[in-house]
């Protein structure tokens, strides 16, 4: 009897999983066998990172310690740092306390300004003062922040005696100092101005400047 069964093809051997197209794939296990890790070698980037972290930590600790020591020294007064601490109290503006002789009317330059809305008042007062022998300089307008005053008399240190002269000729005035270097005087006429002190009633004896808005106000010397 003839065997008519179809012969079975030969079984193929399964390809090894580590072979691919005739090439062997190297795995991690193969590398471990070739390069054994003895546990004493760190990867370079990890080693450098640890050094960097250590340096940064040391710097931060040093900065904290320096800040604490500096703050302690400043609090104890051992160290003075410009700009630290409360600002110094403002220096109060006081009225000059000297006693002044009465100078001649024509011995200094006098500028007259109108501090009111009344047109021509500055020129009028300048003309009256010129009749008394004053050396008149500028005549014009200025803003006056002192309300109700007869006039404001302004000078520098060198013109204090001259300002005293004007206060004896114009009643109820206020003295204000500025930083000019010369002996000139400014008179800013205010809304309270009425008239000059009559010539025969001008007090020419030594005296003090009048600064009623400044504290402390000067007092006449006793004795």
Search tags:
2 domains, two-stranded antiparallel sheet, membrane, Alpha-Beta Plaits, rod-shaped, 14% strand, single chain, 4 helices, five-stranded mixed β-sheet, LytR/CpsA/Psr_C, transmembrane helix, alpha/beta, transmembrane, 223 residues, LytR C-terminal domain-containing protein
Give the low-confidence spans: none
Instruction: Tell me the β content.
Output: 5-15%
Alpha-beta content class: alpha/beta
Q: What is the topology, as strand order, of the major beta sheet? A: 4-3-7-5-6
Order of helices and strands: EEHHEHEEHEE
CATH class of the largest domain: Alpha Beta
According to DSSP, the number of beta strands is 7
Q: If helices are DSSP runs of H or I spanning 4 or more residues, what is the number of helices?
A: 4
User: Architecture of the largest domain in CATH?
Assistant: 2-Layer Sandwich
Mean model confidence by pLDDT: 81
| Main sheet overview | 5 strands, mixed
- First and last CA, distance: 168 Å
Give the proportion of residues in helices: 25-40%
How many domain regions? Answer: 2
Q: Could you tell me the CATH topology label of the largest domain.
A: Alpha-Beta Plaits
Q: What would you report as the Rg, rounded to the nearest angstrom?
A: 49 Å
What general form does the structure show?
Answer: rod-shaped
